[in-house]
């Protein structure tokens, strides 16, 4: 299964696409969509949309996953993040992709085995799980890959549990 992970942000939106059979994972692409902080929010959202649409068209994922809504002490930041999530969710829906939404705790637990893992621990595990020679340099792209890895892990667990109950 090919999965797109998205780490939403108005300045930097990370994306990562992996191919996985549930046990072995392979990196397809990863990167960061950067927007001009001086541009109006609408223009930034449009640029994020345009580039994510290109990733979906180019890499042709079957599923996509994003980090779920989390609480922030800065309401303004949380609202901007919600706008980017809305753009991502709309594109995922338009493309007819299976959607997964996961909390930061679920993502870190799936990838590292510990829900309070630090950024560098996630980075090292993403490198290990994808059998990369070097860690992903961008935290945003790495976080997006962690979201995609979480999706294939959680999806695999759901299917195994469904098989046990059959």
Structure overview:
The protein is α/β, with parallel strands linked by helices and 166 residues long. The protein has a single domain, classed as Nucleotidyltransferase, domain 5. It contains five helices and five strands; from the N terminus they run E-E-E-H-E-H-E-H-H-H. It has helices at residues 41-59, 75-94, 104-111, 119-129, 139-165, and strands at 2-7, 12-20, 25-34, 63-67, 98-102. A five-stranded mixed sheet has the order 3-2-1-4-5. Helix 1 (41-59) runs parallel beside helix 2 (75-94), helix 3 (104-111) packs across helix 5 and helix 4 packs across helix 5 (139-165). The longest helix has 27 residues, at 139-165. The mean pLDDT is 92.
Which tags fit this structure?
166 residues, Nucleotidyltransferase, domain 5, 5 strands
C-alpha-based Rg, rounded: 15 Å
CATH homologous superfamily designation? Ribonuclease H-like superfamily/Ribonuclease H
Strand order of the largest sheet: 3-2-1-4-5
What's the architecture in CATH terms?
A: 2-Layer Sandwich
In N-to-C order, the SSE pattern is: EEEHEHEHHH
């Amino acid at each position: 299964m090919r999965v797109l992970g998205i780490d939403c942000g108005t300045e930097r939106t990370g994306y990562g696409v992996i191919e996985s059979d549930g046990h072995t994972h392979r990196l397809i692409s990863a990167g960061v969509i950067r927007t001009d902080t001086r541009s109006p929010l609408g223009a930034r959202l449009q640029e994020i949309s345009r580039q994510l649409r290109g990733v979906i068209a180019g890499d042709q994922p079957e599923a996509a996953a994003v980090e779920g809504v989390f609480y922030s002490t800065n309401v303004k930041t949380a609202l901007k993040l919600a706008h980017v999530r809305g753009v991502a969710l709309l594109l995922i829906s338009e493309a007819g992709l299976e959607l997964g939404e996961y909390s930061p705790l679920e993502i870190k637990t799936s990838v590292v085995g510990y829900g309070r893992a630090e950024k560098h621990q996630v980075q090292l595990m993403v490198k290990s799980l994808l059998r990369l020679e070097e860690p992903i340099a961008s935290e945003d792209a790495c976080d997006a890959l962690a979201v995609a890895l979480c999706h294939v892990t959680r999806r695999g667990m759901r299917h195994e549990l469904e098989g046990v109950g059959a």
